Amino acid sequence: MLVLRKQVASVIISLGALRCFAQSDSHRAEIDKYLQPYLQSKNFSGAVLVSNDGKEVFKKAYGFANRENRVRNTAETRFHIASVSMQFTAAAVLRLVDSGSIKLDDRVGTLVAGIEGAEQITVRDLLMQRSGLPDINGFPHYAEVLQHHQTPSSLVAKIEGKPLLFEPGSKYLHEEHSAYNLLALIVEKKTGMPFAAAVEQLVFRPAGLSQSGLDDDSLPATPQIANGYEPEGTDGLKTAQAIHWSAKTGNGSAYTTVNDAVRWVDALFSGYFLSTASRGLVLDTSTRVGYGWFRGQNKRLGDTAYYMNGRAPGFSSFVLYLPDPRLTVIVLSNIYSSATTTMGYDLAALSLGRQYQSLHCRKITPAVLKRYIGAFQFGSDFYPANATVNLALRGDALVMLWPSGETSVLIPLGNDRFVDRSYWTEVQIERDASEKPQALIYDQFRGRVIH
Question: 153 with 187: CB under 8 angstroms?
């Protein structure tokens, strides 16, 4: 998934070098003020919670859980959290490791048959997304998979007989959704229960997460469950395409509230939920990815950071934990936009008294936007490799046309500066001396104009 590395705003606000955790009205007002442009531009609707040392610094819900019926989001609204779900799958497996039911170095072939390379891949490789398994989310027919009820067995069957992408345990290539489908199946085999029931028993109930669960397509529609929406144009929204969440079993089918999410972080990192050895695996930063988390030193925040973001039709989520100040930031949204990642990092920076950036969207007329129309060729390191991306006008909006047929709407931020509304990635135009577009900068990638 794509995340914004460079923040997209025109005004830099510095709160000084001192950490600021005071639960004062002014501090809460500063957080609320920061969030308003995201809400008003319809790039965020959901709930936010910031806590320090186990105490709430800020908690507030925004927008609508159901826009059609004007049902508002609350701190008790349940949001689908996409890839953040991996944390619960990993925790369920580690609980089985703690009980002696599974060993991290068990070979997959002793647990599940039919997987290519199963005699090489270990449970540890799956947990650390270093298995080399082909990824179901990248299959040409994946959209069709999402339109039908699935089980861990049916999902794993879709990769049976397919060759490995690399030597198991050798590297992290990308998010391995199929690895976590396989972990869900292993949990079912070891517990003798459906995956949702097993995680309820192994994780949610012991951690006190009474408002969380796994959506196996039996979740009833209630006002407490947020509907999902997706961007339309530069400032509109529409109902997201419905999917069977069971098709994301193990890697993206969980739902939770901000209250439960902060309880989860406290339970996992406080030391009582897992054994000392298993907790040490989660905390280990010798590899960037593992056990449902990204881990490592964050220069901007001046601390080791544990974080995860998720994005699936209609929803986006972000969880961040900094151990030194015990700062937790939770951002859950029922809009399909990765703005939640930018928001979460900025809220952490704000709370630490470090620099953050406000969002300022601009209106640009179609006549001016015509200056940006063109085709741009990217290199082999781009996603997708060697892609030609076109900028075009669709109504009064500038859009990026991807080779896959996907369209990304660009929100103007300033002269020659935009943000991709779906992926919340910075986009810039470089011009030559005659003011003609010369290159398109997407995140850290540069595509040269070809016509």
Answer: no
- 321, HSE (Cβ side, Cα atoms, 13 Å): 21
Q: Are residues 397 and 330 in the same domain?
A: no
Q: What's the pLDDT tens digit per position in 4-30? A: 333 433 333 333 333 444 447 888 999
Which residues share a beta bridge with 410? Answer: 398, 420
Query: H-helix or E-strand containing 429?
Result: strand 425-431
Residue 13 falls inside a structural domain: no
CB half-sphere exposure, 63, CA atoms < 13 A: 27
Q: Determine contact, residues 399/410, Cβ cutoff 8 Å.
A: yes
Alpha-carbon span 98 to 286, nearest angstrom: 22
How far is it, in rounded angstroms, from Cα 209 to Cα 166?
37
Kind of pairing, strands 437-442 and 11-13? unpaired
Residues 177 and 107 in one domain: yes
- DSSP character for 82? G
The pLDDT tens digits for 159-198 are 998 999 999 999 999 999 999 999 999 999 999 999 999 9
Q: Return phi, psi of residue 157, to 5°.
A: -60, -25
SS3 363: coil
Distance between CA atoms of residues 417 and 31, nearest Å = 25
Chain position carrying tokens 């809460």: 28
Beta carbons within 10 angstroms of residue 55's beta carbon: 9
What is the CATH number for 227? 3.40.710.10
> Is 357 inside any structural domain?
no
**Domain encompassing residue 397:** 366-449
Residue finishing a domain among 351, 385, 404:
351
Q: Report whether 73 contacts 46 (CB < 8 A).
A: yes
The residue whose two tokens read 């003609």 is 436
Cis bond before residue 384 (omega within 30° of 0): yes
Among residues 295, 323, 351, which one ends one of the domains? 351
pTM of the model: 0.91
Q: How far apart are the first and last CA of the chain?
A: 29
Helix boundaries (H) for 166-275:
177-191, 195-199, 205-207, 258-270
Asked whether residue 71 is domain-assigned, the answer is no
CATH number (domain holding residue 389): 2.40.128.50
Regarding whether 430 and 311 lie in a shared domain, the answer is no
What is the rounded CA–CA span in Å between residue 252 and residue 205? 19
Q: Is 74 exposed, middle or buried (0-12, 13-18, 19+ CB in 10 A)?
A: middle
Residue 64 lies inside a defined structural domain of this protein:
no
Q: Is beta strand 397-401 parallel, antiparallel or unpaired with respect to 293-298?
A: unpaired
Tell me, yes or no, whether 433 and 347 share the same domain: no
